[in-house]
Design a protein that fits this description.
This protein has 5 helices and no strands. By secondary structure, the chain is an all-alpha fold.
């Protein structure tokens, strides 16, 4: 949960790097939040909570994805690869699974080294 909150604190920060755990925990809690909103909407019969949840979390989800791309040594513009039919999402998924680039890159220091005890 702390990784989700950390990503929310960097709501619209597209600079820097995000570790795999920050990205994937954000994705997990995003999914759980949307599922809860869908269930609430199914009970009340109006899809208002789902719409509000998804609109409220769209910018943080893009920013954490861009920072994750930075962590792998890629520009945030690679985010738009998802627009390529059928293969774009798969390519972006592979980028999200790749380990951090070693050492400092153009986007900042390695967050693994910076947060290591």
């Amino acid at each position: 949960m702390s990784w989700f909150l950390a990503a929310l604190k960097k709501y619209a920060t597209f600079a820097g790097r995000a570790r795999r755990c920050e990205y994937w925990y954000f994705a997990l809690f995003y999914l759980l939040t949307v599922i809860v909103a869908v269930v609430i909407d199914a009970v009340i019969g109006i899809p208002i909570f789902t719409v509000v949840t998804m609109l409220g979390l769209i910018i943080p989800s893009i920013s954490v994805t861009v920072r994750r791309l930075h962590d792998t040594g890629r520009s945030g513009w690679w985010y738009w690869i998802v627009l390529v039919p059928m293969v774009g999402g798969i390519i972006l998924l592979i980028f999200m699974l790749i380990d951090s680039a070693e050492g400092e890159n153009d986007f900042g220091p390695n967050p693994k080294v910076a947060t290591a005890p």
